[in-house]
Amino acid sequence: MKFKFIPLMRTCRQAAALLVAREDRALSLPDTVALRLHLLACRACPKFENQMLTMRLAMKRWRHYSEDADKAPASPPK
Ligand SMILES: [Zn+2]
User: Fold this and answer.
1) How far is ligand 1, taken at its centre, from the CA of residue 43, in Å?
2) How far is ligand 1, taken at its centre, from the CA of residue 48, in Å?
3) Residues of the domain holding 59
4) Buried b (16+ CB within 10 A) or exposed e, 29-57
């Protein structure tokens, strides 16, 4: 059986690119594993991941806030 070597080391630049790409699409299994390993070993990239998650949550809340504002009646509250 031939073993296919898949390099799992990622630089911080590559890990950041994967974190950004993860917002738009599902990552491949090797990329997911490599990203998880990098996040366990790196001190800076988990902070960037938290920033990405914060941005995602803020955008989600803003989107719902905007939709709620459109549905609200035009008259001012009492
Ligand atoms: Zn890193």
Assistant:
1) 7
2) 9
3) 12-71
4) eebeebbeebbeebeebeebbeeeeeeee
